[in-house]
Amino acid sequence: MNERKLRNTQQYIKWSMPEKPTVKINFDASFDNKTHQSAYAIVARNHNGEIIIAGSYLHTMVAKAFEAKAIAYYEVVLLWKDMGLTDIMIEGDSKSTIIKCMIKSRDKSQISAYIRNIQEEKDSFQAIVFHYVPKSAN
């Protein structure tokens, strides 16, 4: 009888500091389908790994989980624009939302309004990078 061996192909990735003068923002969003509420939390660190800001935010009347992620991305962009930071890296674990934020083409999904708003705000920064990371590094 042939014996099969299982291998763990999932890599563990650890958080890494940004290069100076970039501020790295990590966040995660969650969604409650019963109450249609979403929440997200952020942690922003500088090139020394020092926490600049951390917080959590709650939203009501959110239709779907992917909308919760898009709202979080948009609000993170607005927060850093309002703080006057010009060089940021936003890391999250929603690959599809990150791809939509990076591509300049017109989005036609249900979160298109949020993506369009993010695209418009990107010009406010000298450098803004959206980066996908798995949950282990977020």
UniProtKB/TrEMBL annotation:
Gene Ontology MF terms: nucleic acid binding; RNA-DNA hybrid ribonuclease activity
Pfam families: RVT_3
Taxonomic source organism: Gossypium hirsutum (Upland cotton)
Cited InterPro entries: RNase_H-like_dom_plant (IPR044730), RNase_H-like_EbsB-rel (IPR052929), RNaseH-like_sf (IPR012337), RNaseH_domain (IPR002156), RNaseH_sf (IPR036397)
Sequence ranges assigned to domain RNase H type-1 in this UniProt record: 26-138
UniProt xrefs under SUPFAM superfamilies: Ribonuclease H-like
Gene label: LOC107957315
Protein name (record): RNase H type-1 domain-containing protein
